[in-house]
Amino acid sequence: MAKYLISFPSAAMLVPADELEAVGHAARAVIEESKAAGVYVFAGGINESVPPVLVSADGTTQESGYPWAPPLNGGFTVLELPSRDEAIAWAARIAKACRCSQELRVFQFDPQS
């Protein structure tokens, strides 16, 4: 089975403030369903109030991400599933709950990890 990343950037979630609570309940319900199905690995969101730290190969740090890359933010779910079709189905459930499109990516398997 492969692990799939289902994610969205913060800017994609255009939900009126008075609907955020309902979206949160719906999203948590899908996560609970994934746990009950035994496919849940991890879920969460980037804490955007804490700035990223870029750590170089020599160990020096600076408070930023890669200057040339788009910011990394939003919500993420990792599920372990037997097929891409099943991953698409779960991504659709998450998209419906969050009321925004989701990106689906597969992790490459590293047998030494």
Question: How do you describe this structure in short?
Answer:
The protein is of the alpha+beta class and 113 residues long.
How does this model look, in words?
The chain is of the alpha+beta class. The protein has one domain (2-46, 72-106): Alpha-Beta Plaits (2-Layer Sandwich). Helix content is 28%, strand content 25%. It has a four-stranded antiparallel β-sheet, with helices on one face. A two-stranded antiparallel sheet has the order 3-4. Strand 3 and strand 4 form a beta hairpin. Helix 1 packs antiparallel against helix 2 (84-98). The longest helix is centred in the first third of the chain and has 17 residues, at 20-36. It is globular and about 45 Å long. The mean pLDDT is 95.
Write out key terms for the chains shown.
113 residues, alpha+beta, 4-stranded antiparallel beta sheet, two-stranded antiparallel sheet, 6 strands, 28% helix, globular, Transcription initiation protein
